[in-house]
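Please check the following for our workbook:

***
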Amino acid sequence: MNATASAIESEIDEPATASAVRPHIVPTPDEAGSARTEEAQAEGAVFRDAVLGAIIGVIVCVPLWVGLVLIALRDANTALLPPAAMAAGVGVLAGVFLGGWAGTLVGSTTLERFERDHRP
């Protein structure tokens, strides 16, 4: 017999151990730890993108809302500071919501890529 045939026979004769027969779905402890680490990094990237999106949204929305209110009240004979402050507050809320939403949407590609690569 050649070396390949004897190796096959020795594998057949030896009983299979739990470590030798492992379903593909069940990861080893080392694989599970690295997968958890990679998943935490992917989720952290989504969170980072959401926060960055919220910051960018605030930077964009506050001047937009203040500008809209100042344009609307340009011919009124009222004080412009209270409505402009209110518009800034609304701009912050709108920027956090819309920017966070857009950042999460952009960052979800990282999480989807992880899910596609690591889930059965």
User: Anything to note?
Assistant: Residues 29-72 form the longest helix (44 residues). The chain is about 80% helix and 0% strand. The helical segments are 3-13, 29-72, 81-118.
